[in-house]
Amino acid sequence: WIVLGIETSCDDTAAAVVCSDGRILGESVAKQDELNDLYGGVKPGAARDAHAQHIEATISNALEQAAISVEQLDAVAVTMGPGLELCLRVGFHAASALAVQHGIPFLSVHHLEAHCLVANMFRLASRQQEDPRAVAEDAFQEQAPAIVLLVSGGHCQLIRRDRQGHYEVYGGTVDDSIGEAFDKVARLLQLDVAGCGGGPAVERLAAEWALEGKASSLVFPIPMRKYRNCNMSYAGLKTAVRLAVEKGSFDKGEIAFAFQAAAVKHLMERTARAIEWSKSGAVDSGDHVRELTVCGGVASNQQLRSALQDIAQKHALDLVVPPVKYCTDNGVMIAWAAIEKIERYGLHTLQVDPRGLEVRARWPLGKYVGPGR
Ligand code: ATP
Ligand code: FE
To answer: Where are the annotated coiled coils located (predicted)?
Structure first.
């Protein structure tokens, strides 16, 4: 299969052409970093205008790089939600126009599912390098049940994915996402985020501080220790950082380091809880979890990755992580999510007539079945 994936749910206009053997044939992204710097975040109207301005060129760049024409595509897949409604519509309209004009199957993709699945593509590609006879179908059938930690700008969730590709939500944030917290901390510390964004700027500063090896008395409390569920909270930690900044007696690097340590530790405690919950028998989840997957923009954080490695090892799970570049929004993950679904359910079951469809700003990935307090 060769699928074009289109993504405009937030601030990146992205398109990619992907083949079902895991090869990326062409990809193109137009970022809105300058607009975000100007407004101190994503402003939906401005983001929509920027998407509208870049969508056509982004799609044709991806197709050109892949050196294929629209007619050679097996499907056009687009993010239909969740995300910013105004932005989602730009991608949706471009995708549906292409599909209708050229008579190509149209597929709707769930943005969070795409984040969750993209690591599989790289796993498949590397397996095929080792053994060229390994066929895609085998890889798709082998999907082990997994705990997925989805940590992005807009989301912060612990999810269980079963063998059939269904999802159950074990927990989520009760206030802000961890990505938002990183962005906020970057602003509080007045870091230069040009060209990289808040999260990487905080991570870099924390790493520099750690290298200096100075002692520090600054430790932020880990959120929600009173609760034994899988929910997360970052509002309190944000406030603690603000107070530390206002106090004026700490280095910026010291604050960044202490914040990242507490933010990651909190996620680790919740992830461990989710693994225990899935094994507890309290939920009728069928097979035991065999994998731990992390995805979304914050998954590129190296502290988080190494902490997850420890947890995975402790619970005898395989850790599955996408390459850093594909943790944030991209077109590849949209095309790949569509390909996995086509392999599983068949193109004809999935293809829909885009005329009369509407984007979905809110769209839960699955039912909530997490522990109570
Ligand atoms: P959603 O997918 O929920 O709609 P989004 O698409 O805006 O949200 P992503 O593009 O997946 O989110 O991720 C962006 C977020 O990831 C930002 O909040 C950014 O600060 C954070 N982030 C990126 N790199 C890092 C890093 N190295 N460390 C911490 N946070 C990071
Ligand atoms: Fe995203």
So the answer is: none
